[in-house]
Amino acid sequence: MAQTFAEKILAKKAGLSHTVPGQIVEITPDVALSHDNTAPIYGIFQEMGGRRVFDPEMHAIFIDHAAPAPTTKHAENHRVIRQVVAEQGIENFFDVGRGICHQVLVEEGLALPGEVVLGSDSHTPHAGVMGAFAAGIGRSEMASIWAVGSLWLRVPESMKITVEGQFQPGVTAKDLALKVIGDLGADGALYISVEWHGEAIRAMSLSQRAVLPNMMAEMGAKNSFVPPDEKVIAFLDGRARRPFELVLPDEDAVYAQSHTYAAGDIEPMIACPHTVDNVRPLSQVAGTRAHQAFLGTCTNGRLEDLAAAAEILKGRNVAPGTRLVVIPASSQVYLDALKAGYIEIFIEAGAAVESPGCGPCMGNHMGVPAVGEVSVSTANRNFRGRMGTKESDVYLASPAVVAATAVAGEITHPKDL
Amino acid sequence: MSMIRGRVWKYGDNVNTDVIFPGKYTYTVSDPKEMPQYALEDLDPRFAKEMLPGDVIVGGTNWGCGSSREQAVMCLSEAKLGAIVAKSFARIYYRNCLNNALPALTCPEAVDAIQNGETIEIDLSAGEIRCAAGIFDFPPLPEAVMDIFEAGGLIEYTRQKLDADKRG
Predict the structure, then answer these.
(1) Which segments within A186-309 are labelled E, that is strand?
(2) How many domains does chain A contain in total?
(3) ipTM
């Protein structure tokens, strides 16, 4: 029986020959990801009567959402997490400074093809870039996994997005993701497994590909999958923490929806306030005054993203009246960017470079906007109030556009500098 | 439990978790009892002050999209909201509702018919919503998750499961 990726992997994990959409299966995940919310999860775990976690090796715990701690209250939260990690003998723990959970999970060889990652974070689908089935869950659900080791999942319907041809120079995976979200809407893939196929996807670097499953959370997807190929295998060589086995969809699998895009037709896109599906071609909003440009996050804070921004910022300055905040997604990215000379370029251009983590993405610290200000960001979410105050506007775009906007002080396409 | 009666607070499509429970409180407000005062803060400041136990939120499509934060459900379940009726729910939000034993009912026809501020009745066991415009049926909860709901939420459900395992 021909199966999609989601149907096949959930069948495999549940010990069944096949599954169909709508079926409920009980799954033991290979990875249980949690971050700064680990302390409250532990509280729920105790309330459930839990003492020892079901399997300490399953856990991957990160401190990234407000790190280093901006307030004593946050610091207390971090302290509890370190205590839990020590008590429960959890080895895969990544403290302040290591970086954003989704990026670090991939770097550490903990996101593997053919595995299931469940995370108490909505951008958990990110790990689909390595060919894993990765879905976000709630805190109580994570606590229940800590206690009993498994969780119910509904087998999702699947959507196949095929992208053929080649992108024009300067057009990135971010523009593709925004284009698709704008076309299909914020609920365009509600409860659905979104698969990415076609030569334009195969041609992308892993860094570019990661943007796609990362952003499918904004279309309501349960998980999103990029078929793992030789690039993934090469990346995992010497890095994978466990032996793994690829799970690929069958050629003749049945999809609830299929969409095809021509890469060459896609132009630079931007998501306008206050929803991620309020997407327009960049040209329509060029010239909008920007007070802050933010380069970073799990969506676009990797080396390739910093390189694209550095290319634009080299020998230029951030416009007077505009701030540029740069936050590498991980300590590895930071170190590589330092060696490549990008950090020097950012600082010389007048940027504030902060330590790896989520930063101001959800309004915690390190560059939240003032009332009435406009931010242009490489992040994945621009809801009202997202960056701290509901009286501010957030636009979402690619790293090159954010860098060009910092230089011009208004939303700008790099070619117009 | 199976009968809910309360006043309707009606909102639109794609109401996201940042306006239901702002991100800036996610690591500073940890006591569930403190959560209701921030409910819908950036959407409708009147809600937290005026809602009464049993009241019902009526939303459009994709209610609760965005973050996985469970506080966006707990700030309502702690306040003893009766139910949320929507055209559709964001996936993690829907799971969080069931896991906190807050009825999340999908019924597009009822959403179109119900007026803001009216008092409605929901019969969970009969699968009916009764409002001024008439009676609307909603599909029952998936059977596989009814056990969690009936235990009073996932915490209680897992506690019972752990106890059963211990007894062997």
Answers:
(1) 193-197, 223-225, 257-262, 269-271, 279-281, 292-295
(2) 2
(3) 0.82
